[in-house]
## 1
Amino acid sequence: AHAKDQAKALHSQKQWEYMRRKYNEVVDSTVEFNDIVPPTLGYTLKDTHGPPPYYAKFSPGMGRGVFATRHITKDELVHDGVGSAVTFPNGLSWRKFVFSLPRTMACDIAEWSWHQKSTVGGDLRIFVDLTIAAFFNSGWEGHSNVRPRSTISLQFYAKNDIEKDEELLYDYNVYETNWREVLA
């Protein structure tokens, strides 16, 4: 029922910190979450020294989403997952992380997780954002306004000009999904 609940609350600073602490305890204690931008606002977008050009709020019919804080120009860097995403060394570490969380957080992590290769010819890995970047919704093919430049990139660029308060959408199908491979 949680995955179909389109009225799920936006996470608080305390909830994001809890998920990050659990990631450190269960998956990788060396990952540092010391960004000056709180996860409720995103993360420090490289070269800007401030948060990314989006904010989280509810999207009609989609649940939580992210929306432009200002006009964004075509080809502008909108999101850099290097600053917000964490990865898992294997499927077992992802499962341990998910099962260490309260049920509603575990459901969120399962919904937000995606698979991709981070290098050409590399292994398929599990990623998840532990900031509001997790709230990107899919515009599917033809209705998305941001995209990575390749299937190994964690950076999203504007496909066209995006107006202030417009929802940012990307096509979830740009990344390969193979749970059997990554959880093996």
## 2
Amino acid sequence: MVDEKDNAGGGIISIEESSFENSNDAFSWTAVTVLQSLALFCVAGVAEVVGGWLVWVAIRGTNGKIKPWWFALLGSLMLVAYGFIPLLQPTDNFGRIYAAYGGFFIVLSFLFGWALDGDRPDMGDVVGGLISLVGVCLICFGRDDPTVYETVPTLFEMEVCIMMMRWPW
């Protein structure tokens, strides 16, 4: 409890400290929460990518065909649902959850683009998607163990790998 003088009336104001604890301080990943988080990332990704695709094909079309207006409505509803799905994540860190979700969005966008429009990912897409998933794992699960950062390749090492993949063997 903190006591302070009230300058206006000379009385004492009693301010109790909040008993609210930051839930991230007590949070730790378990096998169940990791699986829950990964499943929610996938569900959110499907809702966003498919919802966005439905709006896209209703407005811009695909393969020269524009879909009916209700595709846009259904897609919009899926995008609204997507906005609520991350609230089910087991941790309360908004920035970290949305940043990590970005990696899933990248990979799911490539996969759904391939499935829905026939746009097959190339080697750069695959490598970029894998790098984004490594980033997801570091963002979400690499917080408690500082040694996890010792295994992250440097930018130079990643550039060498990319150059080797492009080398005309």
